[in-house]
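Hey L., structure's done. Input below.
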Amino acid sequence: MQGRLKGWLVAPALGALLAVGGCAPGGDGGGEDGGGSPGAGRETRAGGPALDAVAALTVKGRAPRTGYDRREFGSSWVDTDRNGCGTRDDILRRDLDGVRFRDGDCLVASGTLRNDPYTGRDVTFIRGRSKVDIDHVVALSDAWQKGAAKWDRDKRVAFANDPLNLVAVDASANRRKGDGDAATWLPPNRAYRCGYVAHQVAVKRKYGVWVTPAEQAAMARVLNGCPDTGLPVG
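Output:
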């Protein structure tokens, strides 16, 4: 993948295994004017095999969606890292190539999502007419039903704006995903599935979000095809 798979690390000899397992190691990607790979500006390192981490996740049934509201996770795209830009623009600048700004170096006006992780296609971003979404890899509603309903507001805001849990993707694929977990939705682009599931595992472990039995089984099934996929840490 161009850029977006850099956030998960693989063993040096893993290329052939990933090709067989339906996954591919990522390139460095990058574009002019600040486009680039996820994790730019923050350290990302191997946190051990993602497959091992799946077995350590807490397993429970899904709680009711009662009380869920997007506003429970704070205003959309707040500036949690205090760099003067909202989280959405931070992720666009990170994941798009050929970035152009409306003013200064904050509001992204246009760019290209190369090799979209969910579909494998190139997607053009034009502010106001965007076909690019910023997806929560672990959906907010899914997190709400698996522990976040009992968090304090600060933790929810941090979760909703954590770059580890965010990726620029094709909007139509993101709408089809909805709030699905690994048991109900995986990217149509099979080459990204190992990285996608590894990111879900990393996010759920970091924040203590539990998984359902079916979800844990689905995660293990994907990662069994690429057992050396590293757990991203961000």
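The longest helix spans residues 193-207. Strands lie at 45-49, 97-101, 108-113, 123-126, 132-136, 166-170, 230-233.

-- N.
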